[in-house]
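Lecture notes, part 5. Sequence design as translation. It can be helpful to think of inverse folding as translation between two languages: the language of shapes and the language of residues. The source text, in structure tokens, appears below.
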């Protein structure tokens, strides 16, 4: 096989296509989660913490000189990103846990449903026909 044929076979495998769809959906879902964190979860947390914003925290390594900007170590942004990550991870954990609980409930309902009566065997059908003929 040529290189192009090998690549085509690889790229068109079901798993690769499924993974690509998952990555695209994950990217879109990431935007939703980020919006939930920034617009719904963080405002109440900001009120509880007195409006503390970590993003402005930095350590100046070298002061600005002339047109050159100051060299800073922006550890506040890192802290904010870690807090955002923890909140997002916790939200996803809760969603996965909720979905798992729904699946367990569905599985229990399916298990509780009575199984249909098994189909009678060929011998039982034949004996039933003989019985019915004898009754006549």
């Amino acid at each position: 096989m040529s290189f192009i044929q090998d690549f085509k076979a690889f790229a068109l495998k079901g798993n690769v296509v499924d993974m690509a769809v998952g990555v695209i959906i994950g990217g879109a879902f990431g935007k939703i989660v980020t919006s939930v964190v920034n617009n719904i979860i963080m405002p109440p947390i900001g009120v509880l913490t007195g409006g503390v914003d970590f993003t402005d925290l930095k350590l100046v390594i070298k002061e600005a000189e002339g047109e050159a900007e100051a060299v800073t170590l922006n550890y506040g942004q890192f802290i904010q990103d870690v807090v955002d990550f923890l909140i997002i991870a916790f939200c996803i954990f809760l969603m996965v846990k909720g979905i798992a609980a729904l699946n367990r409930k569905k599985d229990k309902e399916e298990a509780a449903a009575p199984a249909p009566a098994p189909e009678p065997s060929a011998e039982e059908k034949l004996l039933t026909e003989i019985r019915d003929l004898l009754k006549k």
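The translated text above is only one of many valid answers, since several sequences can fold into similar shapes. Residues 84 and 90 are 10 Å apart (CA to CA).
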